[in-house]
């Protein structure tokens, strides 16, 4: 799928942060992008004039939305980025409601969209990328159930790939787990909280975290991922500022 021209791409959760960077990158690569978000957002025109971005204002967690948008746009690429900002507090200061926020949003959204991809189904050769989090690998003690929810997103992506294979659907599902992205709505409060917990300044904390993910670098990495031959795509990747690394 090296040429994205004419390959409709739905980015779920495209209004800000990594989702916005991903939507912009796909449009720059020539794709007609459908940018799904809960609020109306203006997007820049692609600098090279190759692709487009069409906003669709919907609640991505509404179970009826995936079928509606898949039928309306018939995409070949779907990127699921949408989710909630976790409540940054230690375990004893969480309530069940704050602890479970990302299960009720991030996991719910992934479930509804991947379920509908399998039921529709997308056309052969399609790609689905679920943006999880590096927290799924090492935990996140200050964000309640966030790490578990992000791990579940990775599992659900794998389950969907297995079902697609069993049904002979020729759809490639991949989970991408980004490390800290300090400029995003999710990353910014996390960086502040963990820097304070470690007794370091934000600058010191980030310096020790290695190459950082930005919306722009995430967008470039995902474009490269969907352009790769499907046979070479791994079930999951960790994403740092240095790019994608396959997970075992």
UniProtKB/TrEMBL annotation:
<dbReference type="GO" id="GO:0016491">
    <property type="term" value="F:oxidoreductase activity"/>
</dbReference>
<keyword id="KW-0560">Oxidoreductase</keyword>
<protein>
    <submittedName>
        <fullName>NAD(P)-dependent dehydrogenase (Short-subunit alcohol dehydrogenase family)</fullName>
    </submittedName>
</protein>
<dbReference type="InterPro" id="IPR036291">
    <property type="entry name" value="NAD(P)-bd_dom_sf"/>
</dbReference>
<dbReference type="InterPro" id="IPR002347">
    <property type="entry name" value="SDR_fam"/>
</dbReference>
<comment type="similarity">
    <text>Belongs to the short-chain dehydrogenases/reductases (SDR) family.</text>
</comment>
<dbReference type="Pfam" id="PF00106">
    <property type="entry name" value="adh_short"/>
</dbReference>
């Amino acid at each position: 799928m090296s040429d994205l021209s004419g390959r409709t791409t739905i980015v779920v959760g495209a209004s800000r942060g990594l989702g916005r960077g991903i939507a912009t990158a796909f449009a720059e690569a020539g794709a007609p992008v459908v940018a799904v978000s809960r609020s109306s957002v203006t997007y820049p025109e692609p600098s090279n004039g190759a692709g487009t971005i069409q906003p669709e204002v919907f609640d991505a967690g509404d179970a009826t939305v995936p079928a509606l948008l898949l039928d309306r746009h018939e995409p070949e690429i779907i990127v699921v980025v949408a989710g909630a900002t976790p409540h940054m507090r230690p375990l004893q200061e969480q309530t069940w409601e704050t602890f479970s926020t990302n299960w009720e949003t991030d996991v719910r959204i992934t479930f509804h969209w991947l379920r509908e991809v399998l039921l529709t189904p997308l056309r052969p050769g399609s790609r689905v990328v679920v943006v999880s989090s590096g927290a799924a690998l090492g935990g996140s003690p200050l964000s309640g159930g966030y790490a578990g929810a992000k791990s579940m997103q990775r599992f659900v992506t794998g389950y969907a790939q297995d079902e697609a294979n069993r049904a002979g659907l020729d759809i490639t599902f991949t989970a991408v787990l980004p490390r800290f992205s300090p400029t995003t709505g999710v990353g910014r409060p996390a960086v502040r909280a963990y820097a304070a917990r470690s007794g370091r300044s934000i600058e010191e904390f980030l310096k020790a975290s290695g190459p950082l993910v930005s919306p722009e670098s995430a967008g470039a990495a995902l474009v490269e991922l969907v352009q790769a031959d499907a046979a070479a795509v791994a079930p999951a990747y960790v994403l740092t500022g240095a790019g994608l690394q396959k997970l075992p």
